[in-house]
Specification:
This protein is an alpha/beta fold. Helices cover about 25% and strands about 15% of the residues. It folds into 2 domains: about 45 residues, no CATH class; about 110 residues, SPOUT methyltransferase, trefoil knot domain (Alpha/beta knot, 3-Layer(aba) Sandwich), CATH 3.40.1280.
């Protein structure tokens, strides 16, 4: 199978005796297979859309998202957040802003969003990096820090 360079794939190995083999055979499987078959966390999914609203409008799940979370230094502290109202959740989405934060994105999309402020767009608006000591955190750092705090909270109340 020809794949474009840089494509992330999940491979199921045919032989898992790693002591005697020089090469291993396997087949490409769905990235959902480790989660579905073994209940393993296999990383988060990323979608790129051209507007904040389209994240929700183009939800890949027929029943939609159970919880929509925004991250901001202006949000509620993660340590004080109450996730219990989302008991039984299956699908969550977490928004991360860029240099200007989610607030900057909302300012850019003011004509298309029907929100009085950033907090009103989300079920939860969380500060996952309190006392960060800088004006903004790089998105790749914010994702790791935030998800390490958010994921255990979601697992407690849902089937994530």
């Amino acid at each position: 199978m020809q794949l474009e360079q840089g494509t992330r794939i999940t491979v199921e190995l045919e032989n898992t005796d790693f002591t005697n083999e020089k090469f291993y055979k396997g087949k490409v499987v769905s990235s959902q297979k480790p989660r579905d078959d073994l209940g393993l966390y296999w990383g988060y999914e990323v979608r790129v859309v051209d507007s904040l609203a389209k994240v929700i409008e183009e939800c890949p799940y027929e029943e939609g998202y159970d919880v929509v979370i925004g991250t901001s230094d202006k949000g509620e502290l993660l340590s004080e957040a109450n996730f219990s109202k989302f008991e039984g959740l299956k699908h969550a989405v977490v928004y991360f802003g860029g240099l200007e934060g989610i607030e900057g994105i909302i300012d850019e999309e003011a004509g298309t969003l029907q929100a009085k402020d950033a907090k009103s767009l989300f079920n939860m608006y969380l500060n996952t990096c309190p006392g960060q000591g800088t004006m903004s955190i790089r998105t790749e750092e914010a994702i790791l820090v935030s998800m390490s705090g958010i994921l255990p909270c979601l697992k407690k109340v849902g089937n994530i």
